[in-house]
Amino acid sequence: MKNIFAVKGIGDYLLQVSLIILSLLIATGLNRCNEGRKDGEKLDNYLVAIEKDLEKELSSVNSNLRDAQNDYRDLRRAISAGRHPDTDSLQLSIARVLQVVVRGVYRGFSPTTYELMQGTGDVLLIEDLNYRNQLAAISDFRRSYLRDDLKDHDRRVLLLGEKLGEFVNLPCALENRGNLSCVTDPEGYRLKMGNHLMILYRAVELRLFHLDIAQELTGDGLEATRKRLGD
After folding, report:
1. pLDDT of 16-38, one tens digit each?
2. Could you tell me which residues come within 8 angstroms of residue 69 by beta carbon, excluding any fewer than 6 positions away?
3. pTM
4. Fewer CB near the last or first residue (10 Å), C or N of the chain?
5. Tens digits of residue pLDDT in 60-99
6. All structural domains of the chain with their residue ranges
7. What is the DSSP string of 100-156?
8. What are the phi and psi torsion angles at 166 (to 5°)?
9. CA 210, 216, 220, 226 torsion-angle sign
């Protein structure tokens, strides 16, 4: 009877086992390589979408920053002019307040690609922690400050319009750009309106501060994204 433990038999057996193990390792390596390539392509697609998101976000921030700067300028002039007793200053002050009341703000707060990646767990495809933290900071600041600022601004402007209506016929003033014929209580405006304007003025200062930060965060994030797409 042939000895299955003969040296030749053992050598053939070990060779077969080695070939099987090698083939499994190759298959596993190829599978991982394919998965890595798919993940890389997926991340590239995400980065393109993130770039577009950040471009829109930066445009939104810039629009809101311009509006806030205009509000700041108009309120400052309204406060200054409202302190003078002459009718021209009164008309100028009311016209500036009306500019703030009717000025709109840009809202662009649809879910971003980064936020969707967080929800699916695909955010882990971004292995660079510094870059991932950049995107997280933009998202968190947007959600925690910019949205709240807009809500607060809307509320304060609504209150300002209601207060202005105590001294001015608003439909008339809006149609005639603050003409003095629309002012129902000029003395009340001079005595009482200044405090309300100052409150909104300080709120706009804070909003400007937040928008400056958002502009820097978003600009840096966009630059970092474009760098990765260019690599």
Report:
1. 656 666 666 565 555 555 555 66
2. 208
3. 0.79
4. N
5. 999 999 999 999 999 999 999 999 889 999 999 999 999 9
6. 7-230
7. HHH-------SPPHHHHHHHHTGGGG---HHHHHHHHHHHHHIIIIIHHHHHHHHHH
8. -75, -20
9. positive
